[in-house]
Amino acid sequence: MRHNERAASAPWIRTRLRTAPGAATALAVLVLVTAFLAAAFPRAVDAYESKGLRHDILTADAGRSTLEVARPQPGLELPQAQRDAEVRGPELARIGAGLLKTLPAPLRADTSSVAYGVRTTKPAVANEPWLPRPEAVPPQFSYVAQSGLKEHATLASGAWPTTPREVTSDSREVQGAVTEETAAELKVKVGATIELLTAAQEPITVTITGIVAPRDPRGSYWSADPLLRTPSLVPDPTSPFPVHFWTGTVLLAEDAGPALLSTAAEPVLFWRIPPDPAGLTGPDADRLTSVIASLESGPGLLKVREVAGGTAMVSTGLGHIVEANTRMRDAISPVIAVAALGIGSVAAVVLLMTGALIAARRRGELALMRSRGGSLRGIGGRLLAETAVTVLPASALGLLLAVLAVGEGRWWPGALAAAGVGLLVCVALPVRTTLQHIRPTLHGAREDMVSARPSRRRTVAELTLLVLAVGAVTALRRRGTSAEGGTDLLVSAAPVLVALIAALVLVRLYPLPLRLAARPMARLRGAIGFLSLARAGRSSAGGALPLLALLLALATAAFGGSVIAGIGDARDDAALASVGADARVSGASERATLPDALVRTVSDLDGVRNAAPIRVEYGVALPEAVAGDGGTDADGDGDGDGDGAGSDRAGTGTDTGNGSGGDVRAAALVGVDPASYAELARATGLPAFPAAPLKATGASASPPEGAKSESGPERVLPAIASPAVAARLGKEPQAVDTLSGNFEVQIVGTASRVASVSTTNFLIVNSAALEQKAPTTLLLTGAPDPGKLHAAVEAGGKEYAVQLRSEERARYVNTPMQAGAERIYLAAVAAGAGYALLAVLLSLLQTAPERKTLLARLRTMGLTTGQGRRLLAFEATPQALLAAGGGLFTGWATIALLSPGVDLVPLALAGVAGADTGPVVLRTDLWSLGLPAAGVVALAAAVAGVQAWWASRRGSITELRAGDSR
Q: Strand, helix or coil at 465?
């Protein structure tokens, strides 16, 4: 009896899962993917922020990143024995170990590279006659007794410096070593001696016993003070003339520090502690900045002085490195937040659509339970239980996959995101389903949007959303995506709000064109067109929720694609501004000219389409500004195109005065061949260069219209100038004195930039009219082989260099933070496109049973299989076109509205020395805008065709069974 009772009351959850395993599996897969994306996003952000912080510290100059604790030599009031003991290795090692223990978290030291010792801060002159004197000035040496020399260097020749007997401040003989670079430049050999004078002018003989080679020349041991490794030729600051002398460092034995106490070279005790960034994470940046500030001038410094002495000071550039990283992170985060909120909103709407689809399929079943006395609480509880059994394990599995895929990052943000996905699905389905059965509904009542009228509450809600969207867009246009105190979520959600308003407006306007189109269709003989429009107007697949999901997904994909395209365009433009063409050949100095043989050899290489030789002379003095003359018009007085020499974006320059001509004192003279330079402008995508006004060449050539007809040195050359130079020189001919010749120029046009010239103030003339015509730069377009190009230039001499646009372009993709943010936006584009296609599929699946029943009924009335397929295709077309057209418009409008407030410089060019850091704004990317929209239309047509084909394979009796309510 009990066994029969248990069989009659089978568990509800198990029964439901066995009844509809396909629906449960599909829901679990959707939740799994969404939970994975939700959990992976914060972990990916943490990962690239952590890698970016470590990268910035590791790649920074060791002199900036190393933490140095230094204090003066022991006081003269102390006994000599005590002074000597304080600068010996054991005492310095004890203090160094104490300093490592005082470092507060998260700052950790790279103990393998910690160095301590005694060094001189005032270089001492070495008067040995065998030392090189490039300009008759003797070299100067610094002396350091530093720990760990044998661990960080190998002995190239000689022997390691030692202390045969204990060194004190009275010692007058010590041993030392120099690096291979120092020995090569300063002619130092093993056995050489250098005298170091004491404060009493007594000589201390330093014997060079060995020459060493650094094991890691770029490590902090050798790079914290570059003179340890490499000598330098520096100018003499005390000389009234520009003379230079050598300076280097002699490495004394580790325990030879007491000998330096008797010198006047101002010795100091030091401990160099390089940071170990391996354990740092992105969220540690703020704490690290605070800790470093405390060590430099705060409670941390007091703890350091307790260990190293009351006069110890801490100096480091690590704080500036971390602050620069924080600024980049804060600049990138608001842009990333736009993608996160967009994809999160799309995913939430798709999950709600899935719940709506499940509720629609089970509406009859739940209505029957309600009619038999089932309570809303009981029905909702059962739905919650059966949903949780499927959703919660899927969410946990998605979190686990995210942890495995992104192995670095905090766990709790991803856990909260995955839990939020599971909670949304578990709550949305029971709530939506139970709300539909609060009141009994009449059987067969229509719920399409043609008959439904928006309520007052809905109108108020839509107006509220409209106000929020307008406010967010206005704030974003005024102050950009950044806000004081962090990311402004309302501003970052502006694309979502714009898409939401567009969806609500389109849903309200959607029935109007259908009604207008249905009238002429009703007069036609066939019923397919009229039926398709009538059903499209009343179909629930065109409701607000499916349309909202599509518009959000398409707008987010378009925004993400525009970000990626804007980054790529900015880097391409910066590389072009730096190189000037696909490749550039120039001399090592500004005035070095290229020989004709080299120009011909390079121009004849395979892959070179065009070679444009130009002559650039910087610092040409300009005459005084012309009083009362406003200069030349932007269009060049009709003789030339105003933007003919370059793009509208001005490059960075060295001369002052980008505005009024009175501020310009000097400019660059650029001599070009008009024909080849015009071809270069076309090949590199710059606006057309006006070659015709510059073709007047030679002594007998006719001057430009309006110029005085004079011969000899008074000959007038037509010139195209930057706006500031044109404003200074005016319309009349002006004399200029250059190394290329003395002549007069008359402005015939203006240009905002010239290729390969950094300054924004320039004069462009025909190089054939110059007395000195030899080019200083050769600009190449095409795709020459880099190896052959380098070989051809190296054959011409070591004083010539090659710069490739592709190599310059590759410099801009080097920081983990930038690369990680780009990957997130690529994932946003892909996820947006995927959710858009899924929204189309869900909206069509929701009405699939109704479509199949309709076809079955119409087949009993004589509808053929081909007509049925056309009916479903025509029915799905208006909704797909509405979503695709609305998505195109919403994406374009979102980018157009938000582009003035979004600056992509931190993503595109930040952290690259010499890069053009002008504003980088969004632009519409046609591929990311059009491909997802086209995919929506194609998928809708494909699904409709598959439904018609599947329905034609089944008989009408199967679809029109007794008891079917439709």
A: helix
300, burial (CB in 10 Å: exposed 0-12, middle 13-18, buried 19+): buried
Report how far residue 590's alpha carbon sits from residue 615's, in angstroms, rounded to the nearest whole number: 10
- Residue 474 tokens read as 């206005």
As a whole number of angstroms, the distance between CA 687 and CA 678 comes to 9
Residue 699 makes CB contacts below 8 A (sequence gap 6+) with 711, 712, 715
3-state class (DSSP) for residue 234: strand
The Cα–Cα gap between 582 and 804 comes to 6
Say how far apart CA 937 and CA 930 lie, in whole Å. Answer: 11
Q: How many CB atoms lie within 10 A of CB 197?
A: 16
Q: Is 669 helix (H, G, I), strand (E, B) or coil?
A: strand
CB within 8 Å of 450: residues ≥ 6 apart:
511, 514, 515, 537, 538
Question: 20: burial class by Cβ within 10 Å (0-12, 13-18, 19+)?
Answer: middle
Please list the rounded mean pLDDT of every run of 10 residues in the chain (966 residues).
Answer: 43 70 84 93 91 89 90 88 89 92 90 91 90 88 92 92 88 92 92 89 91 90 90 84 87 91 90 91 90 91 91 91 87 82 87 80 73 74 84 93 88 92 88 71 48 68 78 70 60 77 77 71 69 63 70 82 82 82 82 85 87 87 64 40 37 40 75 86 77 61 44 70 85 84 85 74 85 87 86 82 84 78 83 80 72 71 71 74 82 79 74 57 79 81 74 58 46
**CA distance readout (Å), 272 to 58, 100, 222, 462:** 16, 11, 11, 63
Output the DSSP codes for 547-574.
HHHHHHHHHHHHHHHHHHHHHHHHHHHH
Residues in a beta bridge with 173: 205
Contact 798, 790 (CB under 8 A): no
Residues 6+ apart with CB under 8 A from 36: 398, 399, 401, 402, 405, 418
Q: For residue 951, what is the enclosing H or E element?
A: helix 926-953
DSSP string across 853-906: HHHHHHHHTT--HHHHHHHHHHHHHHHHHHHHHHHHHHHHHHHHHHGGG---HH
Q: Read off the pTM.
A: 0.77
Q: Return d(Cα 590, Cα 611) in angstroms, integer.
A: 20
Q: Look at residues 547, 361, 424 and name the one whose alpha carbon lies nearest to residue 34.
A: 424
Q: Which pair of tokens denotes residue 325?
A: 């990283």
CB 788 within 8 A of CB 605: yes
Phi, psi of 502 (to 5 degrees): -60, -40
128, two tokens: 């040995």
* DSSP track, 772-839: ----SEEEEEE---HHHHHHHHHHH-TTEEEEEHHHHHHTTS--HHHHHHHHHHHHHHHHHHHHHHHH
Q: Residue 514 in contact with residue 539, Cβ under 8 Å?
A: no
- State in Å, rounded, how far the first CA of the chain is from the last one: 42
Question: Which position has the token pair 């006006």?
Answer: 690
Measured CA to CA, the distance from residue 399 to residue 444 in angstroms comes to 43
CA–chain centroid gap for 703, Å, is: 50
| Consecutive H or E run containing 71 | strand 67-72
Q: What's the CA angle centered on 462, arms 459 and 464, to 5 degrees?
A: 110
**Both structure tokens of 438:** 């609060």
> Based on C-alpha coordinates, what's the Rg of the chain?
39
Helices in 248-405 by DSSP H: which ranges? 284-297, 299-308, 318-361, 363-371, 376-405
Q: Could you say which DSSP state residue 447 is in? A: -
- Residue 936: count other Cβ atoms within 10 Å of its Cβ: 26
519-540 burial string, b = 16+ CB within 10 Å, else e? eebeeeeebbbbbbbbbbbbbb
Backbone angles phi, psi at 60, to 5 degrees: -70, 155
Instruction: Determine the length of the chain.
Output: 966
Query: At residue 556, what is the residue type?
Result: T
CA distance 345 to 338: 11
